[in-house]
User: Fold these one by one.
Assistant:
Number 1:
Amino acid sequence: MPSDGPQKRRFETTAAESTKSSTGRVILVTGTAGFVGYHCAKFFKKRGDGVLGLDNFNPYYPVGIKYDRAQDLEDSGVYTIKADLNDRSMLDHILQEYKVTHVLALAAQAGVRYATKDPASYVASNVAGFVQLLEACRFCDPQPRIVYASSSSVYGLNTVSPFSESHQVDKPASLYAATKKANEMIAHTYHHIYGLSMTGLRFFTVYGPWGRPDMFAFSATIKIHKGEALKIFQGPGGSELERDFTYIDDIVQGCVASVDRIPASTKETAHFKVYNLGNKDPVTVTYMIECLERAIGKKAIKNYVPMPPTGDVLKTSADVSLAEKELDYKPTTSLQDGINKFIAWYDAYYKDGLTKEMASYVFIRVPAMFDYRRLMAIFSIPKTVFVANRPLCCPPGPAEGKAGVSYKRLSGILDGRFDLSPVLDFGSLDRFMTSETPLAVAAAQRLLQRKGGVLEPLKSPYEYYARAALLQVRARRAAEEMIDLQPKKDADVW
């Protein structure tokens, strides 16, 4: 939390407005810039609950979509605080200052395979961060009720199908699964010792609008559009992988029911439950691809490969009878219907062809200091092209003098604190446009790629950047992210 001054006042004012409630519920949703957290927070706010979000915007997948989700939530009245679960003072302040009645704990380091590359991040977020959250909750008076995300991955090497909450879950197949099982055990401990009311939800392969780009439905859609081969894992003997793909609206239904039905924390004997939330209709990955092909109208290129030892399992299948009985949970969305809705959203989201790569090159106006490092983080910028000692995407004209940030000036602002190797510097527009700079020309041409082919030939990059900026650059998220930065005398501001 900002210590004092305008930033603190804005923080407190916005958070107070966000937590206004007509229902008596004030819900802290952790992971609001994430897929499930975004949808749940939006639902709660729409029905009148006070909702406050928290997210650290980690770059496990491109953070542009996270800032888009957070901005859409803010437009709906939900404020997302940029903070980490391990920031205990922040958690204490949020829970006590805004009288939080419920916590929907969805923040976590996601991904099964990535755990083999950065295991420490999973322990820091999923275990240490979860403990910090429960510690903060146990000292509240009254204590909030807590619904937290587990995962179907806890079933690990279990071979009995469908997976039931009564099955043993002591053979995880990945570190991610182990951390989610640890969440359930830690939750039980805090329930037993401190009387915290706890409900755990084991999600089964969620997909839908605003989904995660690293998950199969999203990543496969991108590759089908690009004409790239899909890598499809196979088990022993060429067996197909099966997943219980669950549409986001059905998952939200289960989360909302859990929040609404969880009894109060008592500081003594309290509620403790774990539920499966799935579609109860597992299908092969190949069938999922067929649904995508029908929705997109284009065939996929398939490349079947043996499943690597990175923690994936052959099949997931949810027994949701307990959730049906106690939460009135009823998944209703067929895979084809859900995929059709996802593709409709995907087409709208990228309707102007503004992919992550395009956003990397488009000029962004922000009302505060040009913080290149933060801009890099927001848009996952691979390169910034400078021509004639200023960003190529800065339009020529009268604004050039005050808006242009030169390569040399940028170096001075950063003062050696950031690696400038991703920056390409070209001496002139002519040089940029000639064959002497094929990399830059190719980069500019790639910006013009559309699903239906290529737009008119590139005449002047300035024309393209101006047009793209007018269409949609999602600059507002950058502005909101940087609004509290105080302009400095040695900074380029506009």
Number 2:
Amino acid sequence: MLLRFVSLRTLSVTAFIFCILILFTTFRLRGHLIIPNTSSSWGAPAHSPSLELEPLDQYCNTFPLSEDILVIVKTGANEIHDKLSTQLLTSLRCYKDILLFSDLEQNIGPFKVHDALKHVSNTTKAESPDFDYYRQLQEDKKNDQDISSLRRKSGSAAWNLDKYKFLHMLEETWMMKPHRKWYIFIEADTYLVRTNLLLWLERQDPSELIYYGSPTYVNGQGFAHGGSGVVLSGAALSKFAENDQGIAARYDKMLQSEAFGDYVLMKALKDKGVAFNGRWPMLQAEKPSTIPFGPGPDNGEPLLLQELYQDMVGPKVYAEREDWYNLSDDQLYRPPGVDGDRQKSREDMSALELEAHVSFEHCGRACEEQPRCFQYTYSNRECGFSYSYRLGRKRYPESGKTFIVLLLNGYDDFTLCIYSSFRPELCLPIPNSPKAAAPSVNFGWDFPVI
């Protein structure tokens, strides 16, 4: 029996070492570098031993890295192997710098996981039954026990302990990595759409006191839902943590009677003059199966070309203008023997098209004949058609040339008829025509402006 026990133990140890080597090699091959530790008065690194990730594949290189964005992940020892590894090997490996916090200090391959509860006040640790689970974690680690087995025994203990991590995580982050422009706090199952995030943050001002998140409410007070991600500007985190060592511990007693750590986070930031601003749906807790599809900021009407016309173009439209170029050059008609681009062969021209170069009037009649011609221009025996409607720009005479344009295709009632493949012709009066008023007209254009 003893021989069998020794053989199984040897086999288990060998398998464990082999798995560790495979995990370590996998992470190393993906280009991860560990920053050396340096000591601080806290007994924790002054410069974080967090990971700098070198993006080695095409996916990460599709968007430039930002040296000023730090991603901070909050997790727990009982779930860390289930959720965090996927993040580290996929979306998080595209960020230059990350910090990991849990309720137990440990290493995951080359990744350092910091104990977010290390500096919780001793009074709170002694008074609150929430920390029974924390002490059990430390004991099991010391005795090399299987920590994941605690999940089956502990029930809600890990969740009760989680609320104490938020503020201490903020303070520790500032101690390790101060003066970044942006701090993004997420959980192990929060997915960041990296391109959207970076483009969005480029349009924000990190010198302002910014505290963004997906809003949730307790007692009528809104705060950022921690699982959806919390965005803090460098100015906001500095306002909270700089020159105020131990600030997180001052809220530990309050947390004993509150259910949600992200709610107390809001109150602590508010005490420092940092107000919450909801940014749903940019930050949200929904899965594809639970996203509410209906009225809201992400389901409103798009900006239509019709609206751009009515506000920016319509008031400037005239039935006819001289010395104006309306960009009518999709199809050009020139005298016989004069060649050029965008010109039909004479064999394919109708009788009116053959004479389109003769005069402004001839050009107009040829345009009226063609269903695709929206507007035309005439200059120096050259007639041009446009297959779309455009306002154009001023153009001064050149060597005696005069540019004459008609901003409609020659209809006697001064209407502009827009043809769409989705609808029959839709017509509206030209606003500045002497024969028409300027009503509000629905073009029937169904194309949003991108």
Number 3:
Amino acid sequence: MIESQKNSRNAQSLAFSAPCAYELMLKVQTIRLDTPVLDVLTLFHSHLHLPAFPVVDEDNQYFGIITRRNYFNIMSRAYARELFARKDLASLLKINPTIFAAPLIVNADDRIDQVMLDFLSLDPEMVFEALPVIDAAKEIAIIKVADMMLQLSESQGTLIDTMEQLSLRLKEEVASAATLQRNLLRPERIELPGIRGLSTLITSSEVGGDFYDYYAVDDRWVVMLVGDVSGHGVAAGTMVSAAKAGVNLLEADKEKQPHKILARLSDTILHTARQSL
């Protein structure tokens, strides 16, 4: 299935000529994990045109990428220079375990139109300004997203429109799913027999697996539920929708026994999961 999708995508790309990553990649200095943090500051100041540097381990093998944005997000904090004055780059992992992560690693022989399609599917908001590139000799470089977009616009202007539409569609679909998920929640102000309060939901992504609900039974009992589906995105949101449907049935049946509530919700969610698979 994956292979057929790749073949289909390649067939669609034959209508125009796009350069490979090695034609645009920049061979820059790599940074070891044991490099002093403040030395990296000097590198960024002396290479203002570079949005990132590749990071290598003690064996000079690719470890990740440090972007200007991620680095200065940490270094702009109060007392950051004093805190990291004698520490190496690896110490930043304690603050942000994913600080060296990149949405994808580019092969030097990859066509940049394919790279951009994959990149936009993983980072539709284009947070990353550069990506790591590794060639056949295992040399590590970077490629600027802006350079790829400029080159593509020069070789095929309509491709840029396609990518923008893809990015916009992804954002719209995620926004619609997020709005739908929000609409599934009860009112923030809780007004139940004997209980008053406020509720809120803050997720780490637009669509997630966090969920809460509540209802009253015969103005005497109150049922309050809090759940968290593993993972994020539309898949987790689907499970939340199933849970909400199950809670609506429980409320209609005036169910208040915890073991029955859990059993029925488990059956509902399991049935939905099987259909999704």
Number 4:
Amino acid sequence: MSLIYTDLLFSVRKINPPLVNLSVEPQPVLEDNTVKFHCSAKANPAVTQYRWAKKGHIIKEASSDAYETIVDFTYFFEPISCEVTNALGSTNISRTVDVYFGPRMMTEPQSLLVDLGSDAVFNCAWIGNPSLTIVWMKRGSGVVLSNENTLTLKNVHQEDAGKYVCRAVVPRVGAGEREVSLTVNGPPIISSTQTQHALHGEKGQIKCFIRSTPPPDRIAWSWKENVLESGTSGRYTVETVSTDEGVISTLTISNIVRADFQTIYNCTAWNSFGSDTEIIRLKEQGTEMKSGAGMETESVPMAVIIGVAVGAGVAFLVLMATIVAFCCARSQRNLKGVVSAKNDIRVEIVHKESASSRESEEHPAIKQLMMDRSEFQQDSVLKQLEVLKEEEKEFQNLKDPTNGYYSVNTFKDHHSTPTISLSGCQPEMRPANKQRVPTGMSFTNIYTTLSG
């Protein structure tokens, strides 16, 4: 009896509604990629039905324990649910998907129209995964005004009017932005060229550009004793045109005379917040063109003059540099000749017999050549010979056995040094104050020079 009771109790315990587990693969996943949901269940009695839903809405095409689909950003906050049913009941389990997606706008910002001096508040809400960054900036400016969903501008001025951008960035995933406008009610603002041009004798126009919110109630042109808001008066006509950027008022003058170029024109605009005025002058276009042509004509000779002056200066500098270089080189050569003159003096070793023979041969030749030359050349040679003898005395102790040259004193007794006598050609008188002329020539060099 107890055995039957135990078997019955064990069987009752095994009967239960389904135990369900829901898995999602892969996770995280980028938007527009495929994921697979798997709904595993343990049930006794057996499972009779699987039902899938998204945010409470039945997915009719899914009826097994698995569901595969392409996910978008909505799967991040709209859960997928799996419901498993058997004879004892049903079990439902839900899960969201960790989807990476770029910024999605949750609250659209609205453009604003505010009065001068009041506050302007913009709201801009984004959602993104992973966490995003919000930046508020004015269009055309790189200044960050806010990193929050809300942008508040205190005590606005007309300069604050313009386009504002709310930008959201999800790192390495994507970015998005929205643009809104801020319009500030205030007095008109006139922005026109203060000097405009026209041709003498032709029809001319002066334009006045007006930005105004609200639009101007009145626009008037005035000059001298005249005031004109619209229509035609004599040679003058006023026309006003509205554009997306503002209002353009044009004063047209027919048959322009010289006095029109001396007149000051006032453009004034009014609205409920105030007024603005601009002073405009008219300039003769022909005069400016002639002046420009004259300046262009005069600029050519000036360029030529400058070019010639620069060229002459460069040429002068090159010439001076050449002269200085030549003088320096010449001075160095002269200095080198004087310094090396003593080093060029050598006394050649000869035997007494050959020296006497050479003297007998060279002496008549030198004498004959000297007789043929002018008195000036003879005097120059005598000076060089005299200097050479004095320099040879300074080198009496010179001795170098390796090249065949010895001191003059060594052979003083043998009279081996050749001597040239030019007494027959020597002039009768020599000035006592003549300076010594340096020379680096030996007897042989002098002979060679005279023979040449």
